[in-house]
Automatic annotation (TrEMBL):
Region Disordered, annotated ranges: 294-318
Taxonomic source organism: Streptomyces luteoverticillatus
Top-level division of the source organism's lineage: Bacteria
Protein name per Swiss-Prot or TrEMBL: WD40 repeat domain-containing protein
Signal peptide annotation: 1-21
Keywords: Membrane, Signal, Transmembrane, Transmembrane helix
Length: 350
């Protein structure tokens, strides 16, 4: 994907202003560190991707068949590979090779209701030079052991209003329909809907159906299909999903400060967002949702209804669940941001 040097200043100003306005230890309602849900089960934990081959993790999807496993893949520069990572150890338990695929710029991954994995080779770092992009589909392996080779079904994709960059592909968990969110630096992206059914023999023209005001790097549906989350580098939005459309923006969940925030998926519990980043040994950070951001069917704690989980603290970017202190500690947050962005600029221009 393309480095994101422009527009960082505006994002930092927004984050800094939020930090200065909030009282100590408090962030906007609707997001909390991950913890046990109403069923008594432990909520998902953060983890570090230990595989040295995964240097640009660009998509993330929770496995349907293997509890605790997350699927990811590299950005451009790798081969046609998808990795299964065990969140309990951070280690890769299987690498899937897509036979016959010439990987160009894989940016997103999602799993459909039938258990098929969809890999979106939809990136276009030059902002719309490819006349078409591709989506590859294959069944999630029943066993995860070492190296696995599959022959995927490949779909050719075009947009009704011409080529564009995109990094977000989602498959609805109930209908199986495929969607893509375009990526624009201005933040004025759009949601595109696939035709039904997808055709492996012809061109699939995706139709623009809604505006998405996020500089989107990934997106995901909740397990019950009632929420859509779209993330950018520094912000995210949660939308209520009804009748195939995002009908209302419900709020902005916390986004952890990461090296280069590239991915998001819902954990199987439906309460927790898992945020991923590019970089060697990158960390996946859990953030629990609350209030109206919670999907309709997500388990709730005792005494918690659909309207109120209250305010809560942020989660550090180390994946440990440690919280940041804001308000009184706002200057420390601003300093950390400045140092982090300085490091990013040096890294990207090296």
């Amino acid at each position: 994907m393309r480095p994101f040097r422009p527009a960082l200043a505006a994002a930092v100003l927004g984050i800094t202003a939020s930090a200065l306005l909030l009282p100590s230890g408090v962030l906007p309602p609707g997001s909390t560190p991950a913890r046990a849900d109403g069923s008594g089960r432990e909520a998902p934990s953060g983890f570090t991707i230990e595989d040295s081959r995964i240097k640009e993790s660009s998509g993330l999807a929770a496995s349907r068949a293997h509890p605790g496993v997350y699927w990811t893949h590299n950005d451009s520069g790798d081969g046609p590979y998808v990795y299964a990572v065990d969140s309990r150890t951070g280690r890769t338990v299987a690498r899937v090779t897509l036979d016959g695929v010439d990987a160009r710029d894989a940016e997103a991954i999602s799993i459909g209701p039938d258990g098929s994995i969809y890999l979106g080779d939809i990136g276009d770092n030059l902002g719309g030079t490819w006349p078409d992009v591709r989506v590859h589909r294959f069944p999630e392996p029943k066993e995860l052991t070492g190296d696995i080779t599959v022959t995927p079904t490949t779909y050719t994709v075009r947009y009704e209003d011409g080529p564009r960059d995109a990094e977000s592909l989602m498959v609805h968990p109930r209908t199986g329909r495929v969607y893509i969110v375009s990526k624009k630096q201005s933040g004025k992206g759009a949601l595109y809907e696939a035709p039904e059914p997808l055709s492996a023999s012809g061109v699939n023209t995706f139709r623009r159906v809604a505006d998405i005001d996020v500089w989107a790097t990934d997106a995901a549906f909740s397990p019950d299909g009632t929420r859509l989350v779209v993330r950018g580098y520094f912000d995210a939005r949660v939308y209520r999903w009804e009748n195939g459309r995002p009908v209302k923006e419900l709020g902005r969940p916390v986004v952890p400060l990461q090296r280069q925030g590239e991915s998001v998926t819902f954990a199987p519990d439906g309460r927790t967002l898992m945020y991923g980043s590019e970089g060697a040994h990158s960390k996946v950070v859990p953030i629990e949702l609350g209030d109206d951001l919670l999907p309709d069917s997500a388990p709730r704690r005792k005494g918690e209804d659909k309207a109120g989980a209250g305010q809560a603290a942020d989660v550090g970017s180390d994946g440990s669940g440690h919280t940041l202190t804001l308000g009184a500690g706002a200057l420390a947050v601003v300093a950390a941001l400045a140092l982090g962005l300085r490091w990013l600029f040096r890294r990207r221009t090296a």
